[in-house]
Amino acid sequence: MATIMHPYDPTEVQAETNPLLQYFMRHSGPVIHKWVDYFDVYHRTFQRFRGKPIKFLEIGVQNGGSAHMWREYFGPQATIIGVDIDPACKALENDGFEIWIGDQADPDFWENFLRVHPQFDIVLDDGGHTMEQQIVTFESLFPALVDGGVYLCEDTHTSYFPMHGGGLRKPGTFHEYVKELVDRMHAWYHAPIAAVAEASYAAKNLYAMTVFDSIVVMEKRLKNMPVALARGYQSHTPVPLALTFLDTRRLFGVPDEGSEPQG
Ligand SMILES: C[S@@+](CC[C@H](N)C(=O)[O-])C[C@H]1O[C@@H](n2cnc3c(N)ncnc32)[C@H](O)[C@@H]1O
Predict the structure, then answer these.
(1) Is the pTM above the cut of 0.90?
(2) Is 220 in contact with 204 (CB distance < 8 Å)?
């Protein structure tokens, strides 16, 4: 007879150390529906913001269960704003949350929104999860993050779901977009030399991307042009005391007329 794996039990594994999971396990208010592994990703990503006067935006409010969870987790100093396409979500304003009604796939909606709220510490996309929604929302809101802010897009397994516009390695999915961002982060090392002078936005602002199962976290941090320095005494293999990325790309044969211009 085949062995049935015991289902992952969050109460045993993490609940003692993860306040979000503790909140979830004892929750009896408006429904929160989450993949259990998300709580670990949330906590490791967001814990440094707890108790601080941050601005937090959640796309996808639904019944408001998660908004209450974030209030408890981040504390009273946090400003929590929600966006949803469903006008019924406005009711959550009675609980002290600011709620905007709009379509996250509409860049004009974000343009108006950002006029009122130009900066956030954290953006969490738990909206409709289609490819267009995830990409438009990221492109509209990542620039609005503060230096040191984080962007978290969840349910990215929809990149493989036909009903969301997904499919394995299908052009235009969020995960294909993320793979492209890896190249754009590294524009210093491959873009045409003329474009490198500007470098790509991602090369200068996207400090790190962490890909979890079904979640991608993007950290924003303004970055300097890459420089390698040598310290210590030189022995049998002398190395240059300083190398910029320009020296390095030439040293390793990257042509000045490199590949794609990067945005
Ligand atoms: C998964 S639910 C959010 C759950 C909520 N974050 C929670 O954990 O309690 C997704 C929400 O996204 C909203 N949504 C779907 N398409 C949207 C769109 N195009 N723009 C904004 N919100 C959208 C839905 O109305 C729904 O309330």
Answers:
(1) yes
(2) no
138: in domain: yes
Task: List the domain range (segments joined by +) for residue 169.
Answer: 31-251
What's the gap in Å between 113 CA and the centre of ligand 1? 17
Residue 48: which CATH number?
3.40.50.150
Residue 240 lies in a domain: yes
Tokens found for residue 231:
């310290």
pLDDT per residue as tens digits for the range 51-93: 999 999 999 999 999 999 999 999 999 999 999 999 999 999 9
Ligand 1 binding site (Cβ under 6 Å of any ligand atom): 32, 58-63, 65-66, 83-86, 103-105, 126-128, 133
The sheet with strand 98-101 has its strands ordered as: 98-101, 79-84, 55-59, 120-125, 145-154, 215-220, 206-212
Ligand 1 pocket test, pick from 34, 81, 83, 104 with the greatest ligand atom count within 8 Å of Cβ, gives 104
First to last CA, the chain: 55
Phi, psi for 143 (deg, rounded to 5): -60, -20
